[in-house]
Amino acid sequence: MLIRKAFETVRQALTRQASVALIGPRQVGKTTLALQLGEAQNALYLDLEDIQDRDKLSNAAVFLGAYENRLVILDEIHRVPDLFLTLRGLIDQGRRRGARTGRFLLLGSASLDLMRQSGESLAGRISYVDMTPLSVQEVPAESLEALWMRGGFPDSFLAPDEADSLSWRKDLLRTYLERDVPMFGARIPAETLRRFWTMLAHNQGGLINASRLAAGLEVSSQTVSRYTDLLVDLLLVRRLQPYHVNVGKRLVKSPKVYIRDSGLLHALLNLEDRNALLGHPVAGASWEGFVIENLINAAPPFTVPGFYRTAGGAEIDLLLELPGGERWAIEVKRSRAAKPGRGFYEACDDLKPARRFVVHGGLERFPISEEVEAIGVLALVEVLSKLSA
Question: Domain AAA: where (predicted)?
Answer without folding.
Answer: 19-139
